[in-house]
Amino acid sequence: MEIAHPYLLFLGDVPDALAAKTALGIVDWRPEWCLGQLRLPGCAADAKLPDMTIAEAAAAGVRTMVVGAVNAGGVLPDHWVVPIVEALHAGLDVASGLHMRLADDPEIRAAAERTGRKLHDVRHTSERFPTGKGTKRPGLRLLTVGTDCSVGKKYTALALEKAMRARGYAADFRATGQTGVFISGRGVAIDAVVADFISGAVEWIAPAADPDHWDLVEGQGSLFHPSFAGVSLGLLHGAQPDAFVVCHEPTRTRMRGVQHPLPSIADVIDLTVRCGRLTNPAIRCVGIAINTEHLNDVDAARTIAAAADAHGLPASDPIRFGLEPIVDEIERHWPR
């Protein structure tokens, strides 16, 4: 899937920044590809890009409008159809990470056919996956797991890739969600794979490799989340991780979108080890990545220190402080 850039990021009228995490993730990791944003009235998210009309974006050289907003169920709201059709008529391709295929809307499909523009549904793939086999394969793998969804699993994996490469490791980010695919140019949106083939798809994402090569697999959901635990478990078994990092947002008390309380970090470590031993008996936790976005500097440092002390593991915020302590732990167990 070749998606032409630069991008115009469409944020729709989402109610908060988390609902625009696809767009915000692209800006954070591929800022050079992003020229502007398009927001509808009532939008509560801001990617800190110039606000543009579609005509202005086309004149500025934008090649693809990316639907950078998400919602429960991944549906396409009816009132988003008009700007998507307008973008196609302005000569832009349109890419989406929603579950609903763009061409399933008759107006969008007709506009794409009339204009000859491309529709990219990043969450869908034409690849056919086998069922997972769980057979031990060469190479090393790390999986990011979470106490909840949207706590920083993708950012942690990307930050680890950057930090490990700086140390001389052969390490590659492996995308399992739509934003990660936009960022890396390769991967599979695991939550769109039929359940029987989730672990097989992850084996395809992170195949056999050189013995000292690390695949840094982007986690999804949480083993404790009643909506997404099935995806998280299939991903864990397919990734067959040698190491995992727990990602946590300390200001939450309930899991996103449901009334269930947030599990403890200790609960996540314990369940991940017990479930992960099915495909890798040697699985171990190598650190805790804490999203301190909503804490001041003093509280952030105190929270990170408390987590490290409580669990006897290195802890850090991948964006605020970097992940050098966790890379140190990896190097301690798997010296180069």
Structure, described:
The chain is an alpha/beta fold and 336 residues long. It folds into 2 domains: 7-121, Rossmann fold; 140-333, P-loop containing nucleotide triphosphate hydrolases (Rossmann fold). It is 33% helix and 16% strand. The protein has 11 helices and 11 strands. The protein has helices at 21-29, 54-60, 81-89, 106-115, 153-166, 178-184, 198-205, 229-239, 265-276, 297-311, 324-333; strands at residues 7-12, 34-39, 64-67, 93-96, 119-121, 140-146, 170-174, 213-217, 243-248, 284-290, 315-316. A 6-stranded parallel sheet has the order 7-8-6-9-10-11, sandwiched between helices. Strand 3 (64-67), helix 3 (81-89) and strand 4 form a beta-alpha-beta unit. The longest helix has 15 residues, at 297-311. It is globular and about 55 Å long.
Read across the widest sheet, the strand sequence of neighbours is 7-8-6-9-10-11
- Count the DSSP helices: 11
Helix content: 25-40%
Query: What's the mean pLDDT score?
Result: 95
The oligomeric status of these chains comes to single chain
Structural class: alpha/beta
CATH topology of the largest domain: Rossmann fold
CATH architecture of the largest domain: 3-Layer(aba) Sandwich
DSSP strand content: 15-25%
Order of helices and strands: EHEHEHEHEEHEHHEHEHEHEH
In this structure, how is the largest beta sheet organized?
6 strands, parallel
